[in-house]
Amino acid sequence: MKTMGQAANSMDKVVLVAKSFGSKEVRHAPRVVEMSEPVVRRLALLGHAQPVLLSALPGKWWSINVDLAALDEANEPGCGYRCIDATSEAIGANHALYWCEIVAGPFDQEADATATYLASIEFDAAWLGPRAAVGRVEPWVCKQLQARGLTEPYPLTAVADAYWVCGMGGGVCATQELAKRVRRFPGEAGVTHGPFDNEDDAHYAFDVMWESPE
Fold first, then answer.
1. 38 burial type by CB count under 10 A (0-12 exposed, 13-18 middle, 19+ buried)
2. Residue-level pLDDT at 9
């Protein structure tokens, strides 16, 4: 088993690039892992220009497609691949020794790759990958979430006990129900007001909306 120091050294040997990135510019790197364009955009927004050293992102989680041989599920490389979640350390120590590509990330924890989020219409959420669900909300809802110290995309787990107004037709719902709606209809949160700390406040906002729909 590799020590933490050995895992860090392994990450130093891995660079991340887009598929369109010129291979000549990274020929000095022992190992190159390609990443999807949405991940490239996300890393650029976080201040990481290509080529990105994997060691610059310790402890992060990623969704990757990786050769089955890296998972001891095939005798020979090239027999197939599987999508898994892996840390930067695992990629550097093992997966980058085989074919692999990053399709989503980076995430702070493994559960983020399959979480349910709210985000503004303008937010580029493609880097979250296909297993995450994103419901789009209006700017005033985003401001309420930011007031709670959250950053976009806003994970619903961070407001698990909240209540929401989902328009005149949707009424009031708890976060658990809202998460189910977003999972069922990705991109459509339907939230008009919230989050509220208790159900009574949410119902009051709903009643006011009916009295003054404009």
1. middle
2. 62
Q: Which two tokens stand for residue 150?
A: 């959250």
pLDDT of residue 192: 94
**Distance between CA atoms of 126 and 130, rounded to whole angstroms?**
8
Give the CA-trace dihedral at 141, 178, 199, 147, to 10 degrees: -30
Q: Give the type of residue at 52.
A: V
* pLDDT value for 8: 54
Query: What's the whole-model pTM score?
Result: 0.87
Q: State pLDDT tens for residues 103-114.
A: 999 999 999 999
Spans of the chain below 50 pLDDT:
1-6
